[in-house]
């Protein structure tokens, strides 16, 4: 199966949002806004169709790379959340 032109455009937008999310030093509100945009783009992308029908060559490699990058972002976001929660513990202790 080949991706349609519209699917390729959505894929490119997903990749650019992930590029922005991978940049370090962005504010938490910017990170949240980008995650919201990424979620909206992913809802437009026919991932289930691609998984069931398959894609070939470069498109498959691109799709697999996208999945890998999203997994890394998930790990990064989880780590950041743990750091924030850890700091909250210290802040809460100071208030007592």
Fold blueprint:
Layout: H1 5-22, H2 28-44, H3 47-53, H4 57-95
Number of strands: 0
Order of helices and strands: HHHH
Helicity range of the residues? Answer: over 70%
Spans with pLDDT under 50 lasting ≥5 residues? none
Could you say how many structural domains there are in total? 1
The coarse overall form would be elongated
The CA-CA distance between the termini, in Å, is 61 Å
Supply the number of helical segments: 4
Biggest sheet record: none
Strand percentage lies at under 5%
Mean pLDDT: 80
Structural class: mainly alpha
Rounded to the nearest angstrom, the radius of gyration is 17 Å
Characterise this structure.
This protein has helices spanning 5-22, 28-44, 47-53, 57-95. It is mostly helical and 96 residues long. The protein has one domain. It starts with a helix and ends with a helix.
